Amino acid sequence: MDKVDSNGCEEGVSATFVFRSRPNQSLTRGEQRVVFWTLAMVCLGTASGFALLGYWPILPFAGLEIGLLAWAHEVLRTREGAYETITIEGDKVVLEWQAGTRADHREMNRRWARVTCECASPGRNCHLRLSSHGRDTEVGQYLSDEARLRLAATLRRKLRE
Amino acid sequence: MSDAAHAHDEHGHHAHPTGLMRWLTTTNHKDIGSLYLFFALIMLFMAGSMALLIRAELFKPGLQLMHPDFFNQLTTMHGLIMIFGVIMPAFSGFANWQVPLMLGAPDMAFPRMNNWAFWLLPVAGVMLLGSFWLPGGAVAGGWTMYPPLFIQGGVSYDLTILAVHIMGLSSIMGSINIITTILNMRAPGLTLMKMPLFCWTWLITAYLLIATMPVLAGAVTMLLTDRNFGTHFFNAAGGGDPVMFQHIFWFFAHPEVYILILPAFGIVSQVIPTFARKPLFGYASMVYATASIAILSFIVWAHHMFTVGMPVAGQLFFMFSTMLIAVPTGVKVFNWVATMWKGSMTFETPMLFAIAFVCLFTIGGFSGLVLAMAPVDIQLQDTYYVVAHFHYVLVSGALFSIFAGIYYWLPKWTGHMYSETLGKTHFWLSVIGMNIVFFPMHFLGLAGMPRRIPDYALQFTEFNQIATVGAFIFGFSQLIFLTVVLKTIKGGAKASDRVWEGAEGLEWTVPSPAPYHTFETAPVVK
Ligand code: HEM
Ligand SMILES: [Cu+2]
Fold first, then answer.
1. How far away is chain B from the Cα of A3, in angstroms, using its nearest Cα?
2. What angle do CA B453, B455, B457 make, to 5 degrees?
3. What's the pLDDT score for residue B16?
4. Is the CB of residue B87 below 6 angstroms from any atom belonging to ligand 1?
5. What are the Cytochrome oxidase subunit I profile domain coordinates in residue numbering (chain B) (predicted)?
6. Contact B293, B260 (CB under 8 A)
7. Residue B410, pLDDT score
């Protein structure tokens, strides 16, 4: 997942700050399907060959593996079109998410919004949260830890402006 | 830096796991990469100690130190653990650390599955090692698990089958992650043919793993049902065919030996251009050679079975198809040499290991060609010649590439330079020790000494003694490696971002150690 959208960091003229990130997909849907099917067919092909010779217990394992591949394929499909947006405009901070069929958003007051960023160890396993009125919301899910730290700094600056 | 320092000031009210829990729950590719590498390091010393016990027993003819059955347990577990517990996990460690860095991706595609894939391994490792304490001891039928022996053994055989299943599941999860990351998470502009060769070799390795793991799982399951549920897949007593096990096993295991070497090709292809200060010669031909090796690896399996009584046509087919693999392998060796040709070379430890790899792996390739000749192999099958062959490709091949890779990337990972003096000492002792152990095995094999025996005829004594001395030199010099790694993690001279003057690629554009701001804006590759 991830990549800061190439035109994600628009520091607009009207002091509106928009940060949009989305999971990176360098394969198209069609290409993802080709990858899945070539793997599935090779597994199924060899397993069927052995099954025809009477050594059928390879088949269920091929089936399980194809199941796992299908799950992975499906996860990629739901990541398609997913995004997360943080907008700071006037005295409002708006968070929006879209992933698969799920979409949500939250608004908070710019003056009350706080940024927390914790890392279990430097640069690893960082959690970035925006909180206000005792409720926090995790942001930066498509970013690397390093990019999250960087975003935390940017957000702090922007919120203060 | 200051952002991060700042981040630490503000403590949120969210507890995050620390200590052991942090490592158990981590989904970060760098953490998981480190875990794989530490696991491989520990297992290297476990399986290495077994090898030293084997060599100690073989120092003299006759039985010296142990019961023959325990000797057989040692050879079996040494093989299984070195393959599934050392070489494969170490390569997975490299993949976890390097693939996202090389591709400009924030992490692996499925971080949680990545965590699972690793943590299954220690479970399997404990099961394998623990089986020494079961009634009847550990499995003793050889890492190839052939029936009828494997159908007859005690409870540890069932446990080993379970461990193989677990390790297989781990490999499948790891492979799905690697394939998806490489294909789907490349930075904008980083086309497949611009990827570092290491990514290519791992991509193809992961395909091999996915294609063959169900075959292994099915094969060991049939052993299990033959043992416990009265089936007769391989049990001759019930009309089963033990030779079919060999076909099925090698249909998995020949691609497996390439799983053990393709990532090594990748590592060496990163190291050599850096220290020759020239781009890799014949990048595209390297990619095609890797792919051809992988495809051919599916049609050569019966070269392990020339003595089972195949029809002549079969022997010829497997003989020529095996020889065919030498062509793409030769292309690779040629390209590495051509990369070094007229380069301005320097000989830091990673480069030394890479050069030793090219020379000594080639010896293993040649002895492979000797074994590929069916009439010759009928003499050499199951002798020490085979042992010499696969240790040249696996020790001076796979393991040396791992050493090269560790010395090469450790400064990037830890932020510290390793001690070049210690590194070079480790290199020279390893390379000399390795040849003293394994070169005489060619002669032993040609003279007819069978493999996997605790006792031997008197005329084999001298070469065995030389081999044992070499083994202790090689084994103990790995303690230097351990020292270097631990010292470099703890501290040492600060490493620069680029670390090596000639290093190219995304991973070197970020500071050492890799953590902060890895790719603050998506890197665009031109
Ligand atoms: C030019 C390339 C190669 C050729 C032509 C070749 C050929 C062979 C042949 C014919 C055998 C069977 C010998 C016998 O049992 O009588 C063999 C065994 C073996 N080879 Fe290779 N090989 C090559 C490369 C490799 C590589 C790259 C690896 C692993 C990294 C490898 C690992 C092994 C192992 C582990 C065995 C022994 C398996 C066992 O019986 O326990 N080989 N090779
Ligand atoms: Cu083979």
1. 6
2. 110
3. 57
4. no
5. 23-526
6. no
7. 94
- Please tell me the distance from the alpha carbon of residue B463 to that of residue B447, in angstroms, as a whole number: 11
Greater confidence (B499 vs B113) lies with B113
User: pLDDT tens-digit profile of A68-124?
Assistant: 999 999 999 888 878 888 888 888 899 988 887 788 889 999 888 888 888 766 556
Mutate to test the interface with A, among B247, B298, B497, B517 (most CBs of A within 10 A): B517
**pLDDT average, residue stretch B49-66:** 96
Q: Convert the pLDDT of each residue in B328-365 to its tens digit.
A: 999 999 999 999 999 999 999 999 999 999 999 999 99
**B272-321, pLDDT tens digit by residue?**
999 999 999 999 999 999 999 999 999 999 999 999 999 999 999 999 99
In sequence order, the β-bridge partners of residue A19 are A9, A86
Cβ(B97)–Cβ(B413) below 8 Å = yes
Phi, psi (deg, nearest 5) at residue B245:
-60, -45
The bound ligand whose nearest atom lies closest to the alpha carbon of B250 is 2
Report residue B360 as tokens: 């000594």
Neighbours of B17 (CB within 10 A): 13
Q: Judging by DSSP bridges, how do beta strands A4-11 and A17-21 pair with one another?
A: antiparallel
Q: What are φ and ψ of residue A111, in 5° steps?
A: -70, -25
The SS3 assignment for A81 reads: coil
Task: Please tell me which of the candidates B4, B221, B519 has its beta carbon nearest to residue A147.
Answer: B519
Which pLDDT score, from 0 to 100, does residue B510 have? 66
Active site residues of B: 78, 107, 143, 170-171, 254, 256, 258, 269, 303-304, 329, 332, 451
Sheet with A124-132, edge to edge strand ranges: A114-121, A124-132, A135-139
Residues near ion ligand 2 (Cβ under 5 Å): B 254
**pLDDT tens profile B217-273:** 999 999 999 999 999 999 988 899 999 999 999 999 999 999 999 999 999 999 999
Outline where B185-299 has alpha helix (H).
Answer: 197-228, 242-259, 262-276, 283-296
Residue A37 has which token pair?
Answer: 């099917």
- What is the value of pTM for the model shown? 0.90
For residue A24, which amino acid is it?
Answer: N
Q: What is the Cα Rg of chain A in Å? A: 22
With a cut of 50, say whether residue B28 has pLDDT above it: yes
Could you say which residues from 1 to 20 on chain B have a Cβ atom under 8 Å away from some Cβ of chain A?
Answer: 2-4, 6-8, 10-12, 14, 16-18
Among B274, B134, B121, B119, smallest CA distance to B196 is for: B274
* H or E segment and range at residue A106: strand A102-109
- According to the 3-state scheme, what is the secondary structure of B279-327? CCCCHHHHHHHHHHHHHHCCCCHHHHCHHHCCCHHHHHHHHHHHHHHHH
